[in-house]
Amino acid sequence: MPVVDVDPDELRRFTGHGEKGDDELLDDLFELGLEFEGETEDGLFQLEFEADRLDRLSVEGVARSLRYQYGDDSGVYVPSTNDADWTIEVDESVPDERPYVTGAVIRGLDLDAAGLDSLIQLQEKLHATMGRGRAKGAIGIHDLTMLKGRSRVEGGENSISYRGIDPDGESFVPLDSNDELTPAEVLTDHPIGETYAPLLDGYERYPAIYDDLGLFSFPPVINGRRTEVNTGSRELFVELTGTDQWTIDRMCTIICYALDARGATIERVSVEYPDRTLDRPDFETDEKTVTHRRIERALGIDVDEREVIDLLERAGLDAESDGEADALSYRVSIPPYRTDVLHPVDVIDDIGRAYGFNRLEPEYPDVSTVGGRHERSRHERAIRETLVGLGFEDLLNFHLIGESVNFDRMGLSPADDALGAAEPATIAEPYSRDYETVRTWALPSLLMVLENNTHRRYPQELAEVGLAAHVDSDENTNVAEERRVAGVLARTDASYEDVKGRLASLARAFDVELATPATDHPSFIEGRVASVVLDGEHAGVVGELHPETLVEHGLEVPVVGFELRADALR
Amino acid sequence: MKLPDAQRAVLEAASANEARSIDRLTAEADLPDPTVVGATFTLEEEGLVTLTERVETDATLTEEGREYADTELPELALHEAVVAAGGETDLGSAIDEAGLNGPQVDIALSNFSRKGYGTIDSGQISAAPDANPTDDPERLALAALADGEPIDDESVLDGLAGRNLVAREETTVREVTLTDDGVTALMEGIETTDTVGALTPEMLTTGEWRDADFAAYNVEADAERAQAGRLHPLRRTAERVTDVLVGMGFEEMDGPHADAEFWINDCLFMPQDHPARTHWDQFTLADPDAIDDLPDELVAGVEHAHREGVGPDGDGYHSPWSADVARRLSLRGHTTSLSARHLAGVATGELEPPQRLFSVEKVYRNDTLDATHLLEFFQIEGLVMAEDLSVRDLMGTFTEFYAQFGITDLEFKPTYNPYTEPSFELFGEHPTTGELVEIGNSGLFRPEMLDPLGVDCDVMAWGLALERLLMLTHGFEDIRDVHGTLVDLDFLRNAEVVY
């Protein structure tokens, strides 16, 4: 979940609650679902957010939510906007991979250092969340006074243009640099360029934004130095490019709401695509209809119409009721900064939060069902109980294993014709070499436990009933998953007879007939290993582990063991 | 009087006139020490002997002490060398002559002066004419100790102990004296009772056991602990959770560990580009990398929910969606994949409400391995499917469930999950530390999840890491001690059984 740094003094200022102490604020924030993670060196609260409320990624948005919670504000708020003076022209050359652009003009801003930090943080957090690391949406914020608009027609409005250019077709001075670089050079020579270069893999033309003076923004990578924003900036041009118009429009909306809260005026821009024109930012509210019955049913409460409308307004929504009694429903308006309301259930959640979920009395559902275990889990439990009765310690090992542990250390190769030899299901990006495949058999795990416990008292008699898997194109998932039963006896006088005796007892318990015809297996001593045949079906292997296997695992006592398919004990 | 053999032997070895030590009685009675001690205590209880305890100090030569006993004390060696050199000589040659080296030189010099064997001045050493090294008390004491004779002079012993030539040890000696009753009993004569050691099959068949007097064992003596097979503590906890859920009417689900992302993520209304889908860092499989078949109709329904939402004014995600991503194979990051398969009717056939389903099974997350996170762990997954369910039903179910594990006063913190709304993190008070800890995540499944699966009633669900429950109920601190191949067998052998 994202963590956002919030200045408590700014929070007091924006909520208008200068009287609230830090502890009181933190309690209020917790109520809102923002968890305090700690403080920065500068005394800012580090707050952990849930990934749905992206409108709370800055102090302004958090303050807005708090004001609703305090009852200081209610209902939907939409900032007023001035008519467009600027146009973003979308050129035919714009790269197909990144076709969308949007923007807004901000005027009358008074940014102090804290305000600038907050704006930069909001931009970064939006990049990390909705913007999917700038791939889906990237924000560029510029000092408007440094832009020179060019009108296409005499007497027309100021305009900038979004284009696609040859990677080396133009040069500009990017932020944090003194050199003129082409976009291609930025990707190789500038640290920020290196970071975001993968986003432009495969692009023939690079995205670029021009004003009359030339290229000033190279989205989604970096802005030019010419239009850099500082605390003296009073007027801003915000542009966003991306792969989805809705996403960048919403990111733009969230930024505009934050700057509106700082007293700035929002001025629309006209986005001119070759085939259509958009008036942005888009502050249109969305609407959801939710029935009174559904609200009461989902929350398990009785409320009246007036109360529902009041709760919705306290959640920052507006509602108009419609119909009566069983047909009573609400047309709910959702402000444009809410990206998380997809369905009427989300409105119900808002009502529940405003009502206070902790006020609800738990109630055991009046629903009658019959419980029971799955046959497989009953079977596994019965095998485990039998093994424990035979003196084995029950183990619970990881299913993930290193390929060398599964094969090499057991003297086994995937191509052998032996139990455990099979193509393992393999992880694409393993955490470490110790956990790169799903084990194809269980004995390697037991040997590892013996290896890690040579300092513990012998005899060590271990068993496990657990999963093993291998690649199998006959399965729909292409992975065959099996339950295996494996056991080992490690002690100075361990003998084949001991382990076969236990196995015979296990077979007896499940009323299957055991036969042990001689076989070969590279993990066992030749002449001391047998196939486990249960009711005439080959089911596993039993024998005395090969000294090479033992030495490989640092063991100084003989070990006998077995492994078989749990299915064979049915 | 009739007494068991051992008691009679002790009584006969004891004396009314002389306190005799247990060691001596043991030697005379020719019985093992514990038997004699046991018999003595019994005799004392019967008033036939008195038992007294005395602290005895034993002095023994240290290694250094023994060396000087065999050769000579360094100061005496020095004195001898000076006398041999005519009563006065330079210090260096006296030391050489006396064969002293290392720390012995300092020992010799300090004791030489202290005991008045002579004087040392400006590098010259002279022997005192009236010194009598032959009768040096320390020398005599060392010789006596070497011969095993006792030393009575405490001050000499203190001196030797101070020089670390003698080690003193205190031992408690138990001594036994016959009482008047004991003497009387001996004079009247004692018969030995016949005691039996082991009960034999023969005694049972012949009936001999009827006349046998069984020797009493020291039933308090330690015995070697038997090593038993035991169920793994985590497995035991899983079994207990299963018992509780079955008792609450839940039926167990089963399904694949390696599954299509469709069942793991897409059915759960997780957008394909959602940060959670990468942040969960699932274990995507490289080989094999895709499922062969998914139900076409279901895939179309899920894709529609993702793109367009569900219901007349529902919205979808503004995210890319492809069936290729849905077919990608992964180790399941949660067992909600089983819930999706069951609700869709592909696991056990179409489900009619009401249903309660659960599983306690492994899930896999490509997380950082540390004291509270494992790459694979058990998830308790539960769902209730019914016509009308409210948030209060969900709260009631969890309140009952957690109360079975001693966790009460649950708190429900509203939270966000892509596939539930409303959603709650569950917090409960730790039974021992009292601190508030997260114990699960829950909610009502969203219509965007249920509608494509063909479910038209309410479903509430929750998930919880079994290991977390185990840590709460057992107070374990490092989960790696419990689960996996790093497990310590002593831990398994000693873990308390919880039921």
TrEMBL record, chain A:
Keywords from UniProt, A to Z, are: Aminoacyl-tRNA synthetase, ATP-binding, Cytoplasm, Ligase, Magnesium, Metal-binding, Nucleotide-binding, Protein biosynthesis
What molecular functions are annotated in GO for this chain? ATP binding; magnesium ion binding; phenylalanine-tRNA ligase activity; RNA binding
The protein's superkingdom reads: Archaea
Signal sequence bounds? none
**What EC number(s) would the UniProt record show?**
6.1.1.20
The cofactor required is:
Mg(2+)
Principal location class: cytoplasm
Alphabetical GO CC annotations of the entry are: phenylalanine-tRNA ligase complex
Where on this chain does Mg(2+) bind? Answer: D340, D346, D349, D350
Q: What class of enzyme is it?
A: ligase
The family annotation for this protein states: Belongs to the phenylalanyl-tRNA synthetase beta subunit family. Type 2 subfamily.
Instruction: Provide the protein name.
Output: Phenylalanine--tRNA ligase beta subunit
Species this protein is from: Halococcus morrhuae DSM 1307
Lineage, highest ranks first: Archaea, Methanobacteriati, Methanobacteriota, Stenosarchaea group, Halobacteria
Gene designation: pheT
From TrEMBL, chain B:
Location relative to the cell: Cytoplasm
Q: Which reaction does it catalyse?
A: tRNA(Phe) + L-phenylalanine + ATP = L-phenylalanyl-tRNA(Phe) + AMP + diphosphate + H(+)
| Pfam families per the UniProt record, alphabetical | tRNA-synt_2d (PF01409)
Q: Name one GO molecular function term.
A: ATP binding
Cofactors required: Mg(2+)
Give start-end of the signal peptide.
Answer: none
Chain positions recorded as L-phenylalanine binding sites: T336, Q379, I380, E381, Y419, F445
- List each copy of the Aminoacyl-transfer RNA synthetases class-II family profile domain by range: 241-472
How does the cofactor bind to this protein, according to its record?
Answer: Binds 2 magnesium ions per tetramer.
- Residues the record lists as binding Mg(2+): E421
Any one GO CC term of this protein is: cytoplasm
Q: What class of enzyme is it?
A: ligase
Q: Which InterPro entries match?
A: aa-tRNA-synth_II, aa-tRNA-synth_II/BPL/LPL, Phe-tRNA-synth_IIc_asu, Phe_tRNA_ligase_alpha_bac/arc, Phenylalanyl-tRNA_Synthase, WH_DNA-bd_sf
EC?
6.1.1.20
Q: Which UniProt keywords apply?
A: Aminoacyl-tRNA synthetase, ATP-binding, Cytoplasm, Ligase, Magnesium, Metal-binding, Nucleotide-binding, Protein biosynthesis
> How is this protein organized at the quaternary level?
Tetramer of two alpha and two beta subunits.
Family classification: Belongs to the class-II aminoacyl-tRNA synthetase family. Phe-tRNA synthetase alpha subunit type 2 subfamily.
Among HAMAP family, the record links this protein to: Phe_tRNA_synth_alpha2 (MF_00282)
Protein name, per record: Phenylalanine--tRNA ligase alpha subunit
Origin species, per record, is Halococcus morrhuae DSM 1307
Organism lineage: Archaea, Methanobacteriati, Methanobacteriota, Stenosarchaea group, Halobacteria
